[in-house]
Amino acid sequence: GMLRAEDVSKEHRQWTLQQITQSLTEYLKHHPWDAKVHSVLGILHNFYGNPQIALPHLKKLVELMPSKPKAWINLGDWYLNQNQFELAKQHFKTAYDLAPSYNLTKYKYAIADILTSSSLDIASFLASDLSTALVTPLFVNAFFQTKQGEKLISLFNLAISHEPDNFFLHLHLGMTLYKLDKKEEARKKIH
Q1: d(CA 35, CA 54)
Q2: Which of 19, 26, 105, 178 could form a disulfide with 96 if both were Cys (CB 3.0 to 4.6 A apart)?
Q3: Closest by CA position to 88, among listed 103, 77, 97, 99
Q4: Contact 49, 29 (CB under 8 A)
Q5: Residue 105: is it exposed, middle or buried by C-beta count within 10 angstroms (0-12/13-18/19+)?
Q6: In angstroms, what CA-CA distances link 57 with 14, 40, 60, 139?
Q7: For residue 2, what is the DSSP state?
Q8: Are 129 and 103 in contact (CB under 8 A)?
Q9: Rounded to a whole number, what is the distance in angstroms from the first to the last CA of the chain?
């Protein structure tokens, strides 16, 4: 049959990925302390569905750069993706302690907390970042995963009381109510 462009590019993409990972792995044999390469390999392997190969690179990154919140977030994300929520929480907590004003660390730690035995008062912990978190699927899904729909609704209502004109908050609350089968309330929100 005819060779289609997308077949060639797909084949080529896999080939280059394999080449990239091979040459970087080879490079690491001689430069084991190169944190950037560990970072790239960890992220690549994770993205292309080889989490077990990614893990040692992400661990090495934390070892090489213990003061970098992003290294702890990458490893925390790995545990989060593997549904190891307690370990994810520990890593996000470290990232947060290193950079409490960096909203990504705050937000990741909050998500892991919701997924575990919640110890944080999410509203006061997130403070002004609450409304941003509420329009982010990962954050909202953590409440659905743990069957804390009512708590989620109360956070929406709190955020809306501070920002009554925030269209996105109303929209996302409407979608949340709909998902929780509160169809009547949802209609009032969306219309």
Answers
A1: 14
A2: 105
A3: 77
A4: no
A5: buried
A6: 21, 9, 5, 27
A7: P
A8: yes
A9: 53
Dihedral, CA atoms, 125, 131, 132, 136, nearest 10 degrees? 100
Per-residue tokens: 164: 């009554």
Q: How far apart are CA 7 and CA 89, in angstroms?
A: 41
- Mean of pLDDT over the chain: 89
pLDDT in tens, 108-152: 999 999 999 888 999 999 999 999 999 999 999 999 999 999 999
Model pLDDT for residues 142-176, shown as the tens digit of each residue? 999 999 999 999 999 999 999 999 999 999 999 99
Whether the Cβ atoms of residue 119 and residue 113 lie closer than 8 Å to each other: yes
User: What separation in angstroms does the CA of 63 have from each of 19, 67, 105?
Assistant: 26, 9, 18
Global confidence as pTM? 0.80
* DSSP, residue by residue, 78-143: HHHHTT-HHHHHHHHHHHHHH-TT-HHHHHHHHHHHHHSS--S-HHHHHGGGHHHHHT-HHHHHHH
Check if the beta carbon of residue 152 is closer than 8 Å to that of residue 139: no
